Amino acid sequence: MCKRLMIAATAFLLSVSAFSSVGAGEPVSVESLLNEMVDRYAVARYPEADFRLKQHSSYNRASKTPDDPEGWFNNKDNNTNDKHDSFIRIEENNGQKEWVLMDHQGPGAIVRTWMPWRNPKNGGAGINMKIYLDGSDEPALEGNMLGMFDGTGIIPYPFAHPSLRSSVNFFPIPYAKSCKVTTDKMPFFYIFTFREYDESTPIKTFTMDDFEAARGLTETTGKALLNPVASGAGEPLRFSAKLVSQEEKSIELPAGGASVRELTVKLGSYENLDVTRQVILKMEFDGKETVWCPIGDFFGSGIGLNPVQGWYRTVAENGTMSCRWVMPYQKGGKVSLLNLSGAPVDAELEVKTGEWAWDDRSMYFHAGWRGQYPVPTRPYSDWNYVALKGRGVYVGDTLTIMNPVARWWGEGDEKIWVDGEGFPSLFGTGTEDYYAYSWGGQSTDFYEHPFHAQPMAYKYNKLNRKTAENERNSMGYSVETRSRSLDTMPFGSSLKLDMEVWSWTDCDMGYGVGAYWYGFVDTTSNRKPEPEEVLNVPPLPDMDGVAPEAATTPFKGAVEIAPKLVVSKPDTIVLKPQDLKKMKLKGAWNSGNHLLFRNARIGDGIEIRIPAASPVAEKLTLHATKSKDFGILRISVNGKPAGVDVDLYAAKPVPSGAIELGAFDPVDSAYVLRIELVGVNSKSKGTFFGLDCVTLVEAK
User: Fold this and answer.
1) Signal peptide position in this chain (predicted)?
2) CATH annotation of 551-698
3) How far is CA 204 from CA 107, 111, 159, 213, 481, in A?
4) Pairing between strand 593-598 and 689-698?
5) For 308-354, how does the pLDDT look when each residue is reduced to its tens digit (9 = 90+)?
């Protein structure tokens, strides 16, 4: 975190009421959007200047329909060579090629951008980016693709920041007619999230003069974001009690029109990690229950106590959890804690309320929860966060997963449909990208920002930071949280948010999500109380044993060769999986078996598709079997020769040992191995061959 802009909260108590968002007839501008960014009252009212959130990203263009799972779940969401097309088009400007990443016609505002490092060790992109507004031939902003938005360039922290191995920006860039973003080289991954306003909305287009004029407001807004306080809050209502199992205790809110301004929960002990999943926050406004959510998933802590600070929520190191979403009501309400943990729990609840003038844009606050264990990672699937009907605004979520293996779990893209559209207007590039970081398998450290955070990953949180930079292990619980400000999502009739379940490993994971939104009295959701599922806490794997990724083994990062990976072969070749353990053979194979290829003839070739473990180049090593009737193989990877011919003859069955193929860039998130039988040893009695696995290690 950039400490030069941080000051002690005791020295900075800024009332958010000093900020006001755009009013009727006033143009949307840099200043109005900066004010809106920290206006919690505005979020509780349906936007007066209505808009829909849209997104242009490097999602895979083969993803067209769920009816085609191979394309829908294609993981190649980036560009690494001239065959890739995860961008809009290529233009030529004054003899210079420009790759178009975003092209929006109509009034709007960029409100969030995300771009990752090109590799996990070095953030430098060496790519120049230009942002053209309102059809101008001259860019309004130009600079290094990463440096412009990582907090080291013109946009200051905390609006622009590096997150974990990423460049992320929330500084608003409004435009009246159009916005086009280009780069002078092929882009890697990218996401541009923007508001699309009604055509009649007045917009004051971003200029550098306006940027300079708003420097004072920019600094004030940044300080407010880093030192969040609730404004307009009255005297607290509170209770402190020992809740026995199944007991519920409530605070009645003041009668008449008012709003919750701050909500605080603290438990006596967090020694049992499950307690944050099994103590439930319930809220009722004007006779309707709108909140049913485990406290960990509501405040952003996940399973266990994981301190974190954001603009809307804070989890303190002493266990105090607080929330600053404004929650209005007309007549009355109730806030409750319900203990489902099976043991007594000491709990404190405090609520502060303030005035509220209810109008036709005022909305009720909602929070729902969904949990599931086990969640199979094969076949790939879309896992629903929430589906909403009616009118409202989506404002955030917290995802807690349990990963039973060390290998990375979060390649899945978000897909968000708004108002019944046929294709999601927000289609992402990865779960970690949605939560504003990158290189998930290695970025297993704590980080926080006013609008997103990773409070927990593997063994690490704010109280136990990661020290081994190159450690790769995403086993156990990971907690990802995002609260929206300028990137809230209004909807007029419906909203559905799905996240792909896309792990590199075929395994059973655990998923739990808290989702937050505002809605009108007739807005409904598919989230209902799940008292049984909160007791189904996904069990942790052995976190103290030797993690698979860290184990000393020749099969680290192995992909077992199985019939389903064989994408091409002559009809005469027969595939036969063999259990080598039952055959009592000596030597080490990855999982004790291999795939035997029978009846091959010289000149025959087969193709095997190996899923990539990373979007960058990897070193591939083949493990096979030698035997008395095996032949000589020639191997290529993605059409390129790989090593020398391999003679698999041996007097008796033995492991081949490591057959190094070399380093290759993945193509469409995979490596296609072509294996051709080119001859036989003079001592061999046949033309069979047996293949064990391929290991993938990031190329140095």
Assistant:
1) 1-20
2) 2.60.120.260
3) 10, 15, 20, 14, 32
4) antiparallel
5) 999 999 999 999 999 999 999 999 999 999 999 999 999 999 999 99
